[in-house]
Fold:
Amino acid sequence: MFESMRKSAMRLVLVQAAAGALAGAAAWPVFGRAAGLATFAGACIGLMGSLCMVAGLLRVRSGTTPGRMLALVLVGEAAKLVVCAVGFAICIVAFDLSFPGLLAGFVATLLGYWAGLLPAVLGESTPPAAPAGQ
Structure:
């Protein structure tokens, strides 16, 4: 079960990275270099937040209590929020990147997250084993 969870988490991050890269690659020729860079930066912010969450999930081991698992998820989610807020602040204040471009890249990674979840939601999991004797 835990191996499946780890594979799913990594697949989510890879799909998010692809979605962010596609958004940045599309924004660059259409809206210009500045918008393309901002879109890539927004995607990186979303990706770094997801990596914080995945890092928490990867620490779950067999025998972990539900309370400990919930604590790891909450810590990962809190880290994700902090990383995203700090990332947006740095990109806007220090690098003067456009907020619409940042937001577009960030939203692309969110869409990638939901696209990455589709296989699990639609039943990609292995079928249940047949009862003995059948």
Notes: Residues 7 and 58 are 10 Å apart (CA to CA). The chain has one domain: 2-120.
